[in-house]
Design goal:
The chain has 153 residues and is mainly α. The protein has a single domain, classed as Arc Repressor Mutant, subunit A, CATH 1.10.10. It has 7 helices and 2 strands, in the order αααααββαα. It has a two-stranded antiparallel sheet with strand order 1-2. A hairpin with a 2-residue loop joins strand 1 and strand 2. The radius of gyration is 18 Å and the shape is globular.
Amino acid sequence: MTTSREDGSGRLAIGQLLVGLLREFRTELFAPAAAQGYDDLREPHLHIFGSVGVTGIRLTELSARAQLSPATTSELVTDLERLGYLERRPDPTDRRAKLIFPTRRGRQALHDAGTRVAEIERHWSDLVGNARFADACATLQAILDELGEERSE
């Protein structure tokens, strides 16, 4: 396989492509946030919202999913609690532990973010065509799946 360094196409290296797309994604995701009443959210909160789910999660698992240190995760969760998006509840299987849940406001923010992600996917699909966008997503998913299998061997 020819890499970006070797093919002379002038395309960015894969890392630059992924970082650039993530930056574009975050920009589009946050564009309507203030108008929807989420002007108190910051980009680091996305690490938590993208990993928290709705069924309750322990801080250690959330930290692993978000790929953040436990201290950073705890700080962001505390911040989102203060803003009314998350709450900590006792874990019914271990009363010493706490589970993190989205509040009503947090669930609404997750719902609105999901709607926005669908809009972004439609926009990007319109830019390059449905088939190319679907192929790009399938290829990226396949890479993630194969890398995950490699790591588990």
